[in-house]
Amino acid sequence: MIQSLPKKVMALAFSVFLLSACQSPSEPKEAAASSKVDLVYPFLDAANSRWFFFSSACRPFGMVNLSPDTEIDGAWGSGYRYDTDTIRGLSHVHAWQMAGLSVLPVHFIEGEENAILQDYYSPFSHEKESASPGWHHLILDRYDIDIELTSTTRVGFHRYAFPVADQRGIVFNLGGKMGPSDLKEGKLEKVSDRLLVGSVTNAPTRRRPKDLTVYFAIELDHDVEGITAGEDGKFLVKLDQNSGPLLMKAAISYTSIENAQVNLKEELPGWNFEKIKAESKLEWDRLLSRIEVEGGSAEDQRRFYTDLWHALQGRRIISDVNGAYPDNTGESFRIGQLPLGSNGQPKFNHYNSDSFWGAQWTLNTLWGLVYPDIYEEFVNSLLVYYQDGGFIPRGPSGGNYTHVMTGASSTPFIVSAYQKGIQGFDLELAYEGMQKNHMPGGTMGRAGYEHKTTLGGGLQYYIDQGYVPYPIPEGSFGYHQDGPSLTMEYAYQDWTLAQMAQGMGKTEDATYFAKRSKNYANTYDSSTGWMRPKTVDDQWQDPFDPYTINTGFNESNSAQSTWFVPHDLQGLADLMGGPEKAVEKLQAQFEQAKELNYTAGDRHERESHPEYSRIPINYGNQPSIQTAFIFHHLGRPDLTQYYAREIAQKVYGGLHPATGYKGDEDQGLMGAMAVLVKIGLFQMTGGTEADPSYQLSSPIFDKINIELQPDYYPGQSIRIETSGNGPDSPYLTSASWDGQSLSGYNITHSQLTKGGTLQLELSTESPK
Q: Could you read off the pLDDT of 286-325 as tens digits, one per residue?
């Protein structure tokens, strides 16, 4: 039985259907597609790829993320980089701080085994390449080898067509630099003529402080004649001279070779490549089809489903099909076991994940409404980490805490699930873990990648003095020790925890954390009108420039981060002299940012550029992606509608390998943001208040249908219908829900999830 995500949609009708031709990577077609998968353009922004960004032959959240690598050195600028013309391997693991099992088919002259191990890369051409979710095809020009890749959740499936020439083989790269990791202790063993097993260990990184071993089992449909070991973890597998196409199955596990073999046996017992390819397409299509759109241009629709696809990947399953998983949270490695259901299958999967920093405005809303089954699995996985290691993580890697970024970013994620009725997890355990994170000694007090101390986050100062000083007097303990940003982040996260405490009847806790949530005001400098760094002895930073990046503000500047008060925008406006003055200030920032298309360049590393770094609003990174919706809360929904449409078109529009997210697409965060602005739904608080409210903006499509999941919500679907829509019609003139007028362009979660029709009238003219 194939176990894939999510459980409640695992029952696939394994019907094999013809896959339509995929688009050329450089010139995406705009013809009608037979499925949502056919609309996805995997090469979007691939010229700016990082190790875990690009995906092709992969299932949703698959443990295996099989795709070609054109660059293999470093977490940034590695993986599949579209503008690099050399294939260096076909890797099975592209994850947050993780890599492993890179292979490449070759042919060579007998006796030159060592030579090929030292030089086996091959050029390739995009003209002979195609990809879609779950599948990748290319030709190695050096060898004229035709390659097709697909996968199940835990098993990569390869099909190679060799020319009639020389000795055939496969190079296994199990050593050296691979993406974010230094690979070591690579082992490859021939068990039988057609079965290989082995392992490779990811050495610790600055972010993932412990070893992580990738175990694998390889089955081929041709005989293996022998293995030649080279230097630095390279192995050459020599194949028999059978002239037919070669099929190879590569299963991985993070627990043992035995469990890799279990994954292989359970998920891919047969050899029908076309069947697995079709099943992968169908699984993706079922998830993508939960949102149906009509209208807009053909390119708009293709980009939309590409964005939605990005929102459903990046974070990876790390548990085996039997529920075994790697636990690296303690003093020594152990193999954990997920709880099993009455059917003997794991109740949920365990996950690897980059940070939830910024998820409050992205995944919380999209997953909470459209993918509550996925959402619930992730919450349960976070609680496994708490039970194992004593902390709810903000971004685990390989069963290990990384303490990536700052604060307690998992708190809004869990609270939003609770408030939306996604409660198939231990509520008391979740609250206990979050409360611990918000107190001294917990995750909140750790700076980025602070593994052994809890001083870098300055939490004790926040509690005692009402703000985190900059710099922290004790010194440097990690990254992102940016006092004002930390103060504002903690304040928001405290407020979200207070909401859950109130809902669970923990009134004393609710009062305590609600009081702490006002601390953001202590870092506001009324003389400048900006959030401003303050020393431990209550002195404002001097000199101070609100447009200088990373001087007290995490991956941002003061102009961008001053608005990070999602839980109390009225209070922030009062500090600025009232809503009108706040609107005037923010609108001036948007108009200035408009000159640079609302982003700090076309990739994350451009944020330090002398010009781009000074942008006052940056939709290429998480700290200020909520700002267009602030106008809505300050009495100017028309400005929200205008700028949200601008963002949809200028930041998250187009289909090209050279651009796409204009910055840092952290494992679905920007993909999800793009989806939300295009369907016109947003949640400023991250959906963390009781009966969370959605703010409406202007969808770019004429009709949108969102399928509701019956295990979570009473309604069947949400229908959004627009009239007067067009590229130059961003303004709402009226909104109604099932014929009843909506005031203030807001609608609650309980209303939406009962199902119904949201009717929006749009205009080219602002009602103001």
A: 999 999 999 999 999 999 999 999 999 989 999 999 999 9
The domain ranges of the chain are: 7-290, 353-756
pTM: 0.95
Q: Which two tokens stand for residue 9?
A: 């949609």
Q: How far apart are alpha carbons 499 and 434 in whole angstroms? A: 12
Evaluate whether 200 touches 175 at the Cβ level (below 8 Å).
yes
Checking 708-711 for CB contacts under 8 A at 24+ apart, the result is 708/753, 708/755, 709/8, 709/371, 709/372, 709/373, 711/8, 711/372, 711/373
A 10 A CB-CB count for 696 gives 25
184 burial via Cβ count (<10 Å: 0-12, 13-18, 19+):
middle
Fold match between domain 7-290 and domain 353-756: no
Structural domain 7-290, CATH architecture: Distorted Sandwich (2.70)
What pLDDT digit, counting tens, does each position of 408-435 carry?
A: 999 999 999 999 999 999 999 999 999 9
Q: Flag whether pLDDT at 101 surpasses 50.
A: yes
Q: Is 624 helix (H, G, I), strand (E, B) or coil?
A: helix
pLDDT score for 7: 42
DSSP calls for 535-603: -TTS-B-SS--TT-TTSSSTTS-HHHHTT--TT-HHHHHHHTTSHHHHHHHHHHHHHHHHTTTTSSSSB
Domain at 353-756: CATH architecture:
Up-down Bundle (1.20)
Residue 165: which pLDDT band, with cuts at 50, 70 and 90?
Answer: confident
Neighbours of 437 (CB within 10 A): 26
- pLDDT computed for residue 1 by the predictor: 37
The closest of 747, 768, 758, 737 to 642, measured between CA atoms, is 768
